[in-house]
Design goal:
Layout (H helix, E strand, L loop, with lengths): L7 H6 L29 H10 L2 E3 L6 E4 L18 E8 L2 E9 L5 E7 L4 E7 L6 E3 L9 E2 L2 E5 L4 E6 L3 E7 L1
Length: 175
């Protein structure tokens, strides 16, 4: 475990007895008497789900969801260790379990596996350089950019967007 900023270990080293409200600038302390979080669902754990795992809803009731994980390419200045190499998370929505897992592949690729519950559609956004190849369940999308369960589009921000219109489990490889 690290005790360098940003980490939970850093807060312990600084004398915190409860979770921080968030990971603000290194070395900045709370005002005397200011409360920490005394609950299990802190801003940090919410960030892990919404950003690192990338699970979010676009309309109430999880009828349409967005899966857009943040995949760090390096670590913040002053931190130690290696960048995050995998994430596995799930969220039990009112429509069913949403699952995501991403792993860095040797050679710089990415494996992304996700499950969309019934009566739910999803927009999935993943990083993809101009020379990258994409496989959906082991197959390249057709010439019309369709794959079983949806279609894809690219943008100029080096991301690929998959519009998933059918529930199920999908395996995406970006090489």
């Amino acid at each position: 475990q690290t005790s360098k900023f940003p980490s939970w270990g850093y807060g312990v080293k600084q004398g915190d007895t409860t979770l921080q409200r968030g990971w603000g600038p290194a070395g900045k302390k709370r005002a005397p008497g200011a409360a920490g979080l005394n609950q299990s669902f802190s801003a940090v754990s919410g960030w892990l789900m919404a950003k690192l795992a990338g699970i979010d809803t676009t309309i109430p009731g999880f009828q349409r969801i967005r899966l857009e994980p943040w995949i760090p390419q390096s670590h913040p200045e002053g931190s130690e260790g290696t960048p995050v190499s995998w994430v596995k998370a799930h969220y039990d929505s009112v429509r069913g379990r949403i699952q995501v897992q991403w792993n860095r592949l040797e050679g710089g690729g990415l494996l992304y596996v996700f499950t969309i519950p019934v009566q739910t559609t999803a927009t999935v956004r993943l990083p993809m350089g101009p020379a990258s190849k994409l496989l959906v369940d082991g197959k390249a999308p057709g010439a019309d950019n369709r794959f079983p369960g949806g279609f894809l589009q690219t943008d100029k921000k080096e991301k690929i967007t998959l519009n998933v219109i059918q529930s199920g489990t999908y395996r995406i490889e970006v090489k």
